[in-house]
Amino acid sequence: MFYRPEEGHGLPHNPFNAVVTPRPIGWISTRGAASDNLAPYSFFNAVAYLPPQVMFASTSAKPDRDGTKDSVAQIREAKVFCVNIVEYAARDVMNASSGSYPAGVDEFAEAGAAKAECTTIDCPRVADAPASLECRLTDIVRLPGEANYAVFGAVTGVHLRDDCLRDGRFDVTAFQPLARLGYKDYARVTDVFSLERPG
User: Fold this and answer.
1) CA pair distance 189, 104, nearest whole angstrom
2) Cβ proximity of 196 and 38 under 8 Å
3) 169-170 and 36-41 as β-strands: parallel, antiparallel, unpaired?
4) Closest to 42 measured CA to CA, from 161, 146, 187
5) I want to staple 127 with a disulfide (CB 3.0 to 4.6 A). Which of 1, 55, 116, 174 is the partner?
6) CA-to-CA distance for 81 and 107, rounded, in angstroms?
């Protein structure tokens, strides 16, 4: 099968998200004038080591946020955000925070996520996340499309949950990170293996 996106795929559901998988989930927390906010984004990844940098993309809009969503709107104002890593045990809480709530609703409270303060920025974080990355905004890039924005941030602080550190390494099998697949599907990491690079 081959298709051009502008001509359509002819399938019952769009296969694009199912092709680019698995994708890590950035559970983005922000603080705005109206409230704190928490929302998951599966267009998310680390993009640089030195200095450490991450990005996430927002691809839809709410009528009360001027062509974008709460996360991007609040990052525009505050210039900071926090990326919380989602463990399998938090899947239902994460999913509850993904609803399209009105601006001013605190998704921490709505979803039942424990909240803590960040250390290097004025922003909330998920208190019991396996890891949280405190970030200062470096750029928001408008992408082609109606409401597509890529948000980049430099990591200014890293929280690691103690039970996820084993023999000096951050062990993902200790918390089983949640990954986004296509459609309504998710996966969790339960096994890892190593490969040595040539040379």
Assistant:
1) 34
2) no
3) unpaired
4) 187
5) 116
6) 15
Tallying the residues shown for the chain, one arrives at 199
CA dist 6 → 9, 33, 65, 95 (Å): 9, 40, 28, 31
Q: How far apart are CA 93 and CA 90, in angstroms?
A: 5
Q: Report which of 63, 87, 58 is spatially closest to residue 75, judged by C-alpha positions.
A: 58
DSSP of 51-77, one letter per residue?
A: TTEEEEEE----TTTTTS-HHHHHHHH
Taking only Cα atoms into account, the Rg of the chain, rounded to an integer number of angstroms, comes to 17
* pTM for the model: 0.95
